[in-house]
Write a structure and sequence with these properties.
alpha+beta; Beta-Lactamase; Helix Hairpins; Heat Shock Protein 90; 3 domains; five-stranded antiparallel β-sheet; 14 strands
């Protein structure tokens, strides 16, 4: 990152022709921002536009103070850079406001001797790296559930069948009071078997993939939700119609999105939410690549699918373990739904991210699109 800072400083200090400097800075993959003495945006590259979610033309009319509250630590860094005229770095910053929500950000600031009071900021967003680390943890958790499912299927299902059969026989030969206990045994045996069946879904099985229109999947899930468990929820659709097909298993994608939408619908039914809403969105997010396990190949994941709700958010103590098996905040949940989601997404070579705070929770899937190699299969 220091090399990027040095290059940006040289460019903005005029050591490279202005026509060239704009092109070079615009092509840098990390956000670069130049602020003047009043914290007005003098320059932002394309990566900074994406990071802030605001175009360069709009930022030219704004100050940094319009995006962040005055007590944000970033302003302290800027003041220190101006006072010392040295390069200062700050790690693990949070940029929080109604227009911006970024966590775990590294910012490096430096002064420009040729422009008094101007500050150059180079930003590194570690969220992609954190997402990869979490994805590895999710896959490890899914593998542990896979092994557990195999053991349970082998060691539990057969005894359960015997217990259930014995309970059924007892129902026909005991009095009314004892019959109720026999029915309880049968029902509990059925519940345990259903749990084992759900865990068996974690088994390592090959995926039959085809070209899938992600918008048809989302529309199918929306119709299911609005005709049943989410009839009371208002849906918003923000689709990019230019997206290519996803290389995936349609039924498994439906299972993933349906699970996320069902969780969102349950979240927005909390007390105090007057207007429950769920947003389904798709789009491109360039620059997301992951390694294919067991190979030297790297997979591009340019397409994203987002499921967003305006519920109360996910509790901080649960958030780091959200995709681990048997972790749930529901009184009646098994804690396997999101683990299965993580496994299916991982089996497709994709990534899943979560961003949650009160009033806004978003699950974002990064998925591979169909390539020429896939189309020839």
């Amino acid at each position: 990152m220091s090399a990027v800072m040095a290059k940006a400083s040289r460019l903005l200090a005029g050591r490279v022709r202005p026509a060239d400097s704009g092109v070079i800075l615009g092509a840098l993959p990390v956000p670069v921002i130049l602020l003047d003495a009043g914290n007005n945006f003098r320059f932002v590259n394309h990566a900074a536009e994406q990071f802030l979610g605001i175009s360069a033309a709009s930022l030219a009319q704004l100050r940094l103070n319009d995006l962040l509250p005055a007590d944000n630590p970033l302003f302290l860094l800027i003041d220190q850079v101006r006072a010392s005229e040295a390069t200062i770095s700050e790690h693990d910053l949070t940029l929080e406001s109604p227009r911006l929500h970024k966590q775990g950000i590294t910012v490096q600031g430096t002064a420009l001797p040729e422009e008094p009071e101007a500050v150059l900021l180079v930003i590194q967003d570690a969220s992609a790296a954190r997402a990869l680390d979490r994805q590895l943890a999710f896959r490890g958790a899914a593998r542990s559930v896979t092994g557990m499912a195999a053991i349970l299927a082998h060691e539990v299902k057969n005894p359960l069948s015997g217990i259930r059969g014995a309970a059924q026989l007892l129902e026909t030969s005991v009095g009314p009071n004892d019959r109720e206990l026999a029915e309880l045994i049968r029902d509990e045996a059925d519940r345990i078997r259903a749990l084992v069946d759900r865990m068996e879904a974690f088994g390592a099985k090959p995926i039959a993939r085809t070209a899938v229109n992600i918008h048809r999947v989302l529309e199918h899930v929306r119709k299911l939700a609005q005709s049943g468990f989410a009839a009371h929820v208002r849906f918003h659709e923000l689709y990019d119609p230019s997206l290519p097909p996803v290389w995936a298993n349609r039924d498994q994608l439906i299972q993933v999105v349906l699970n996320l939408v069902k969780n969102a619908a349950e979240a927005v039914t909390q007390e105090g939410i007057a207007h429950p809403e769920i947003t389904l969105a798709t789009g491109f997010q360039h620059g997301v690549r992951v390694a294919v396990p067991g190979t030297t190949e790297r997979l591009d994941l340019p397409l994203f699918v987002a499921v967003r709700d305006n519920g109360p958010g996910i509790a901080e103590d649960i958030r780091p373990h959200l995709f681990e098996p048997f972790v749930t905040s529901k009184t009646t949940g098994s804690g396997l739904g999101l683990s299965l989601v993580a496994k299916i997404v991982g089996d497709h070579g994709g990534l899943i991210e979560v961003d949650s705070r009160p009033g806004r929770t978003e699950f974002r899937l990064h998925l591979p699109v169909v390539t020429e190699k896939d189309a020839d299969q």
